[in-house]
């Protein structure tokens, strides 16, 4: 029966059972990401964010939670312009984070 609405999927995340292989790979490849304190400057200045729903801060959050389906959907929207890197107050190489995620997805495609 159609009720005219849908029920959202539960967003509960089990941090004990999550798979952090991709996350660890990216953090090893670009350790500056550990300095991110979530200020959102990258997101506010993002070129892709002006045209799409892309949001670097949300991408980072999803990465650290091991939500790979969401990451795979989002990461290709980045245009790799590098503007976010210029404004980051913590010196995070955000552009290389995105490139690392793209590489890691290729590396782990078979297991994700
Ligand atoms: S600008 Fe830098 S510190 Fe701020 S959320 Fe983005 S990556 Fe993190
Ligand atoms: S490199 Fe990607 S995340 Fe950074 S500002 Fe450009 S489009 Fe946005």
Give keywords.
112 residues, mainly alpha, Fumarate Reductase Iron-sulfur Protein, Chain B, domain 2, 7 helices, 50% helix, binds iron/sulfur cluster
Helix content: 40-55%
- Total domain count: 1
Number of helices: 7
CATH topology: Fumarate Reductase Iron-sulfur Protein, Chain B, domain 2
Mean pLDDT rating: 90
CATH level-two architecture: Orthogonal Bundle
What ions, cofactors and ligands are bound?
A: iron/sulfur cluster
Number of strands: 0
User: CATH superfamily, called what?
Assistant: Alpha-helical ferredoxin
**Gyration radius over CA:** 15 Å
Give the SSE string.
Answer: HHHHHHH
CATH domain class name: Mainly Alpha
- Our estimate of the beta-strand percent is under 5%
Largest sheet: none
Choose one word for the global shape.
globular
Unreliable parts? none
The structure class reads mainly alpha
Distance between the first and last residues' Cα: 34 Å
What does this structure look like?
By secondary structure, the chain is an all-alpha fold. It has one domain: Orthogonal Bundle (Fumarate Reductase Iron-sulfur Protein, Chain B, domain 2). It is 50% helix and 0% strand. It has 7 helices and no strands. The N and C termini lie far apart (34 Å). The relative contact order is 0.21. The model has no long low-confidence stretch (mean pLDDT 90). The structure holds iron/sulfur cluster (2 copies). The site of one iron/sulfur cluster (SF4) has 15 residues, from helix 3, helix 6 and helix 7.
């Amino acid at each position: 029966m159609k009720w005219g609405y849908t029920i959202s999927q539960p967003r509960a995340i089990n941090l004990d059972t999550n798979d952090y292989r991709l996350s660890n790979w990216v953090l090893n490849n670009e350790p500056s990401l550990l300095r991110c304190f979530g200020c959102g400057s990258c997101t506010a200045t993002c070129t892709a964010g002006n045209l799409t729903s892309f949001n670097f801060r949300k991408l980072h959050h999803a990465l650290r939670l091991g939500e790979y389906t969401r990451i795979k959907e989002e990461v290709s929207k980045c245009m790799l312009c590098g503007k976010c890197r210029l404004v980051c107050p913590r010196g995070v190489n955000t552009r290389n984070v995105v490139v690392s995620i793209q590489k890691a997805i290729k590396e782990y495609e078979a297991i994700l």
